[in-house]
């Protein structure tokens, strides 16, 4: 389908593309990345924002024409040419919120295993995500220090980035063995959480019995319970992590839920029963590449109700790999920029790093979900968007 637009509407679109003029190096392999399959032949350059503008214009054509036409001659010319008619249906442009992204990880700053391999490309990562339709990020905090660092990054991208504050179960010792005592550490977490409206959630907190070498069961349980009490006091929704610990996780969390503000179990890799219990408790389920590795993972994901789903990358980890069960559901997913080995990375050339997951890759998660569930990408993206905004807000007006 070739979409022809009246000059006035086209002006609307082109006036918005200039926002990305400085990103001309950031061309993607195929323009189709912004469009779903029935509109791949659209002839003009388009950004997620401009396309949304077009969508608005097409749903109210008379307003768009009247407000932008510069003369009655323009309007007459446009309306007299049938091939300039507005499209009957506009292509849907996917929009994403990556609710789990670890931007404090040194990989996003060019450092791997303590060694600086290339210069920081954080700005490029962010802009690439924006061009790919990622409209918000929620940065994960994993201890007091990392939560502070996440907030510092978010403050450089106001309105675009939000953060969590909390101590990951693998860092539980930071809290339980703090030299000034846990109360002092909890006080510092409280102060940080209250310091900025960009703190949207309390987390990442929970239990991880796959990695007991970082912190024992008792240390993890103590850190989890103390932080749940603090989250309740602060009235922040939860960003939760549960790995190989479902029984204890639920025994600690579920009785406290009436005093808490709800939240999300992110990076979900549990069983069907576990998923159903989480949903039954009123919580949401976060899906990333790690949630889609096996056929069993896919079967569980397929049953997550759409009104309980959120999506994430958990970058730099949890990418979708060709060996994963999910990869066969990527056939119609947008092409991503080329990935190179970190040693071969050239700054400013729009390259991904092999093995480093980042926000622009979230489209792959959404397409796998849509294809496994047998629904449209629009249904997946809009459900995840609504759920995320309902729980975490992230500065989106409730009227939207
Ligand atoms: Zn996690």
From TrEMBL:
Bias kind Low complexity: ranges: 55-74
CDD domains: TatD_DNAse
One MF annotation (Gene Ontology) recorded for this entry: metal ion binding
Keyword Nuclease appears in the UniProt entry: yes
One family name in Pfam for this protein: TatD_DNase
SUPFAM superfamilies recorded: Metallo-dependent hydrolases
Family note: Belongs to the metallo-dependent hydrolases superfamily. TatD-type hydrolase family.
Protein's name according to its UniProt entry: Mg-dependent DNase
Organism annotation: Morchella conica CCBAS932
């Amino acid at each position: 389908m070739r979409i022809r637009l009246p000059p006035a509407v086209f002006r609307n679109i082109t006036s918005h593309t200039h926002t990305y003029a400085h990103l001309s190096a950031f061309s993607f392999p195929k323009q189709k990345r912004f469009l779903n399959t029935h509109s791949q032949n659209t002839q003009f350059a388009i950004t997620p924002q401009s396309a949304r503008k077009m969508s608005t214009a097409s749903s109210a054509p008379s307003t768009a024409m009247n407000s932008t036409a510069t003369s009655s001659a323009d309007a007459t010319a446009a309306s007299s040419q049938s091939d300039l008619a507005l499209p009957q249906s506009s292509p849907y442009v996917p929009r994403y919120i990556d609710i789990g992204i670890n931007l404090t990880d040194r990989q996003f700053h060019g450092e791997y295993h303590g060694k600086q391999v290339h210069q920081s490309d954080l700005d490029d990562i962010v802009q690439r995500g924006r061009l790919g339709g990622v409209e918000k990020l929620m940065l994960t905090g994993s201890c007091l220090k990392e939560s502070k660092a996440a907030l510092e990054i978010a403050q450089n991208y106001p309105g675009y980035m939000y953060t969590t504050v909390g101590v990951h179960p693998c860092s539980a010792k930071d809290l339980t063995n703090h030299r000034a005592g846990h109360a002092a550490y909890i006080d510092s977490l409280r102060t940080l959480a209250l310091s900025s409206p960009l703190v949207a959630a309390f987390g990442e907190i929970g239990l991880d019995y796959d990695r007991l070498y970082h912190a024992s069961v008792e240390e993890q349980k103590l850190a989890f319970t103390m932080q749940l009490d603090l989250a309740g006091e602060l009235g922040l929704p939860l960003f939760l992590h549960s790995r190989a610990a479902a029984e204890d996780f639920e025994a600690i969390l579920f009785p406290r839920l009436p005093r808490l503000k709800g939240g999300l179990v992110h990076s979900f890799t549990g069983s069907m029963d576990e998923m159903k219990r989480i949903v039954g408790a009123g919580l949401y389920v976060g899906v990333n590449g790690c949630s889609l590795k096996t056929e069993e993972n896919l079967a569980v994901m397929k049953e997550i109700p759409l009104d309980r789903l959120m999506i994430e990358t958990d970058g730099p980890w949890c990418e979708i790999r060709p060996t994963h069960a999910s990869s066969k559901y990527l056939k119609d997913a947008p092409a991503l920029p080329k990935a190179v080995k970190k040693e071969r990375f050239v700054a400013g050339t729009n390259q991904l790093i092999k093995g480093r997951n980042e926000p622009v890759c979230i489209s792959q998660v959404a397409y796998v979900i849509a294809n496994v569930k047998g629904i449209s990408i629009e249904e997946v993206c809009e459900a995840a968007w609504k759920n995320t905004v309902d729980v975490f807000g992230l500065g989106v007006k409730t009227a939207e």
